[in-house]
Predict the 3D structure of the following.
Amino acid sequence: MTDTAVSVRPAPGTRLMFRWRKWDGGPHWVHECVYLGSDEWGDWFGQLPGWDSSRPGRTFAPQHPNVTLLPPSGDYAYTRNAAPHHTKIYIDIAWDLRWQDGEPTGIDMDLDVVERTDTGVYVDDQDEWDEHRVAYDYPLDLVERLESLTADLERRVTVHAAPFDDATGDAWLARLAALDLG
């Protein structure tokens, strides 16, 4: 679902906002980040400690660097946190994740695939998904597609298939660290 009308990405090192919304159009998370570039997996963004992440009613400043992948499919955003963060991988299942007006934006669909150093790989926020798919009347074909995607991502993260392997995430974390953003 990446916007094909946007053929030119910002230059690596360009700061921007990654904007999420909910299915009903309501605001959700907004993350201050930097565009890092792209590879065979899609577009990558980085976030440094202390940068803003906020949503209505909550503000969060990360304590560790992280990088996020927006794949061409536009159906998830994969975040890899740098050590010693206990949440190594956090994947937001999404809809309509794309470039809009020069910034990444998408709909957070509640389900998340998580890998923690202390508890392993699991699917998070199933309760939110169950509640919202009824309350927002998600189309049945979308429900089936995203539940299948979630199961596939959980399997791929468990076996550390690229881009969910250490080498891919570490390379982008190194690229983030090498930027002069002072």
The mean pLDDT is 93.
